[in-house]
Amino acid sequence: MEKYASRLEALDTSNCFNNDFLLTWEKTDDELKAVFEVADALRALRQSGLSARIFDSGLGISLFRDNSTRTRFSFASACNLLGLSVQDLDEGKSQVAHGETVRETANMISFMAEAIGIRDDMFIGKGNAYMREVAEAASVGFLDGTLEQRPTLVNLQCDLDHPTQAMADASHMITELGGIENLKGKKIAMTWAYSPSYGKPLSVPQGVCALMTRFGMDVVLAHPDGYEIMPEIEDIAKANAEKSGGSFSKTSSMKEAFEGADYVYPKSWAPFKAMEKRSKLYEDGDSDGIKALEKELLAQNSQHSDWECDSSLMAVTKNAMYLHCLPADISGVSCERGEVAADVFGKSRTSLYKQASFKPYVIAAMIFLAKAKDPAGALRLLSARGRRRILD
Amino acid sequence: MEKYASRLEALDTSNCFNNDFLLTWEKTDDELKAVFEVADALRALRQSGLSARIFDSGLGISLFRDNSTRTRFSFASACNLLGLSVQDLDEGKSQVAHGETVRETANMISFMAEAIGIRDDMFIGKGNAYMREVAEAASVGFLDGTLEQRPTLVNLQCDLDHPTQAMADASHMITELGGIENLKGKKIAMTWAYSPSYGKPLSVPQGVCALMTRFGMDVVLAHPDGYEIMPEIEDIAKANAEKSGGSFSKTSSMKEAFEGADYVYPKSWAPFKAMEKRSKLYEDGDSDGIKALEKELLAQNSQHSDWECDSSLMAVTKNAMYLHCLPADISGVSCERGEVAADVFGKSRTSLYKQASFKPYVIAAMIFLAKAKDPAGALRLLSARGRRRILD
Amino acid sequence: MEKYASRLEALDTSNCFNNDFLLTWEKTDDELKAVFEVADALRALRQSGLSARIFDSGLGISLFRDNSTRTRFSFASACNLLGLSVQDLDEGKSQVAHGETVRETANMISFMAEAIGIRDDMFIGKGNAYMREVAEAASVGFLDGTLEQRPTLVNLQCDLDHPTQAMADASHMITELGGIENLKGKKIAMTWAYSPSYGKPLSVPQGVCALMTRFGMDVVLAHPDGYEIMPEIEDIAKANAEKSGGSFSKTSSMKEAFEGADYVYPKSWAPFKAMEKRSKLYEDGDSDGIKALEKELLAQNSQHSDWECDSSLMAVTKNAMYLHCLPADISGVSCERGEVAADVFGKSRTSLYKQASFKPYVIAAMIFLAKAKDPAGALRLLSARGRRRILD
What we know:
Three copies of one chain form a homotrimer. By secondary structure, chain A is α/β, with parallel strands linked by helices. Chain A folds into two domains: 187 residues, Rossmann fold, CATH 3.40.50.1370; 186 residues, Rossmann fold, CATH 3.40.50.1370. In chain A, 47% of the residues lie in helices and 13% in strands. In chain A, the strands form two sheets. Chain A has a five-stranded parallel β-sheet. A four-stranded parallel β-sheet of chain A has the order 2-1-3-4, with helices on both faces. In chain A, strand 1, helix 3 and strand 2 form a beta-alpha-beta unit. In chain A, helix 2 packs across helix 13, helix 2 runs parallel beside helix 14 and helix 6 crosses helix 13. Chains in contact: A-B, A-C, B-C. At the B-C interface, strand 2, helix 4 and helix 14 of B face helix 2, helix 3 and helix 13 of C.
């Protein structure tokens, strides 16, 4: 544990305390590194059979505006690891509430809440804004004395970013490479891929482009014309690359992106502009418009069914690791034709599951850093305490 | 902690042990004061960063016959504070089960249950009766050896009373006043208010009238003709007032009730007689009758849309504190015209959230008193144990 | 505690560690006895006010493909007793997923999972097979390093067996008799009984026949022609009886089965062949076929409405104990005519609730034996630790 604690001490994490984790690009390099470090430390504690509970009691609130087994279990796992009990708040898929309702709900669910995980990725311009409303209300509630503690917000996926996913993806690569410094100069292809379904969020490609450019990677974003991500995020990726000595480039050829890549991340998403239009249609309650848009988008998708990650494409990479946030649309398995060929997926299964396994630790690390005033000291204490997770 | 413990010791709480909390008017003044005292003590523990867990393990069962984010989170928070894990039993909004089914369910959910919180406010004559059936079955199960412990029942809202709400409301006033003795002589206006929705329970006005008359307050109940609460509860309020040296009066003018009031509690509810009729219609499965009644009641409501708590009404009070159990129907915010004007609500927001924040502590105190044989000793033990809620 | 620990030590439980509990007939006599022993020990701990927590943190996952208050609460109680937090995964009543999806889900829900309880009894040939897929995937995930621990699977009811029910039933009889050796020579009538509903699983009669023949009991299976259970299970029961010195016989007369019985277990189930047909119809999505089959089966049932456990039938037994897994179809109470007469049920209520009360302890014992390398030592440790479950 000492190695994690001393590495953590070398980083400036002072601004993490009592703070939220909403967007990776709001965080300093030190803060991101601290999340990786604490996630590794928590995993090491668990592997050695020790309890990582820092909470004797307390609630972790999950606020999902979309069904999600995976994210739900990752958040529940993270909370459990630290000693929080999960309480779910399901608000349905309705358009996001505003103002009075958000303020009130934020306080009413936070009486014993140490952490609130929110997933709200359905509507462009809404999800992250909603999180900030909740965060602001929780701050006011704390200052006013309604709440005895300020719950930490963790963005479990919004319209802009998917920080717990991208951080878990990075953790996986870093672990395989043996260190964050080894990401430098590695090429990652974040590419669109064909799916017979519709309306997948933009948060994964956006999160990956914005995060991987932080570490000196060569990030190539590839998609057919018309599948653009948000221009603001491209700007962030460019600026990051410049600063870190990496690069951010774009192409409309999947093969070009794959050439010489160390990592490939082929995944379907919906065009930003269509998602923006869709948000507007929902706002107006225009169900005919929504149906028409869906039809249009599926037709548009079907013109690009050749964007499938198969073994011939993998062959042009530098023996790349195949990444995915799961579940993938696997050709001949979960659909007739999808994002990835069955043989490519099959060969990567173990790696993909490991990739996913970093998420609970990443989420727990985000909460840990917001709650422990002296996180390095807390890690040392957990180790010195030596409490077994299971009675022997 | 010593001040709470010694004050608690001065009260006779012997009858709280292994007992339920179903109606405030079944409790002695000492027992009510003990709830306030323990609630304050638990809050103080939390504020000083100490764990208030009295349970190493055990379940808190929530049994709701109505959707409820607020009550659900209050109960979950109370359970978590004391160390219980919540397990929800959602029975839907169907008419209440009886006899064999209740007996059986009560036992089947109680194997590790330390507390059962029930909300059942939909049908006059049913909710509290159902709680008693569950309580009785749990008692028998305990005596028969099916259960290793007798779970404590907490009424989270029924057809007669809303004890956790009214006790939280009182806690808020007592805290602001600096002591329960200061409630004496204060005037509280419990008034009906207009809402565009229909069929709100009677439990809040009934609970407030029955409780606030216990402490020597001058309670004025105001509503338009036809919006009577249950006559049994009015009788209880009258008897309480006589005993405590307070008063209980009625008026059909909102303004008259507000005049010189220290507290106002304007809130919509459905007429008792209409609710009784509605219960009958549900029992008979008469859906046409239910629809007709709903239409009739909405029409009746609309004749009283002037029953809105606005600044001109607030002006006739003695700078009264505005109380509400939330969520309120706020004119121009959650509805076109509702219970309260937006400016009145807005000025009171912080106070309202604080009012709500007492509920988890009140619920926890009720459970605490039913589980700790020597509650004052238990408070001292918690303080002496000094277990931090978060690892430092 | 010492008596349980030393008796446990005399049994070979080495194969329980890190293993699952899917079918009683896969377990040795020693392993079954160990479950009874640990269940009793855990109950004794609780009765003496001591904590039986062996987990500091960790998740228990419930994966139900059918609604179930009873089983849900039994599993939640077992998890809570040992210190696990429950996380539910509701997959709906859809046909069971296969292959990739199962593998992936098994890993994604297991990051912090110590135990997974699965109920999947809807389709012949599917439920137990599904559990094995999950178990295999969890094993691979553990070996691959995706998971830090191998979660233990507990069969909470499948198409073949209902081991937690049958073990709880046996626990109840053993407790009443004062020892497992006293089961020898006792006659138990596992009989079909009439129900106005349709499609009840076969897992209870199959589980009872397969388990009770292990202990030298005389097991008589009775049902009308056409209500056969799976022939494989009958073969298991026969082989068990031969080995244990008990017997397994069949009759198509309820009365004959009841004659001289020490225990009667009258319960409705659907014919195995009809269930097999039904599974096929669901697989083909043949909803007309499903409806036709349902009609046919209800008509078939109605020819046997005389298969009701009433006092005249009870009179031919040796003052038998009436067993049921609950909820029972009680004539004149939960239906016009059902499995059991109201007076017979009423006299047995206390016994039936006690029977059910063994299930949480049996489930906890199964998890305990899979998690404690030295289970006898762990029991001694729990006793020596002396941690009170409630602060005194």
